[in-house]
Amino acid sequence: MGGAADWRNVTYEETLEEELRAISRRREADRSCTVADLEGVLANLYQVEGADWGGRGEVQEAALSATIAAYELAIAQWKAEPSPHGQQEKG
């Protein structure tokens, strides 16, 4: 693997890690943040993904894909966490 694939992978991985950190910080700082809030952001990201009428380019495409993956992962992990009352949180 070389060249373009390398920078795409680097962009994807860096963006994924940055987004996961940002989501984690949001959860810690904003106790009113819910799974539904993250799902709303994810729904908007899906719309952006499907509305590429302007031609994003490879860098933006890799970053958007990583951002979507980060939200999907964070939501799945959050839903898998036990709630303080012994039941999983519904989203």
General description of the model:
- With 91 residues, the chain is mainly α.
- Helix content is 71%, strand content 0%.
- It is built from three helices and no strands.
- It has helices at 4-29, 35-50, 58-80.
- Helix 1 packs across helix 3 and helix 2 (35-50) runs antiparallel to helix 3 (58-80).
- The longest helix has 26 residues, at 4-29.
- It is globular.
Which structural category fits the helices and strands? Answer: mainly alpha
How large is the radius of gyration? 15 Å
Shape: globular
Q: Compute the average pLDDT.
A: 88
- Number of extended strands: 0
> Ends: how far apart?
39 Å
User: What letter string, H or E per element, gives the SSE order?
Assistant: HHH
Q: Count of helices?
A: 3
How is the main sheet built? Answer: none
Low-confidence stretches: none
The helicity comes to: over 70%
Quote the beta fraction: under 5%
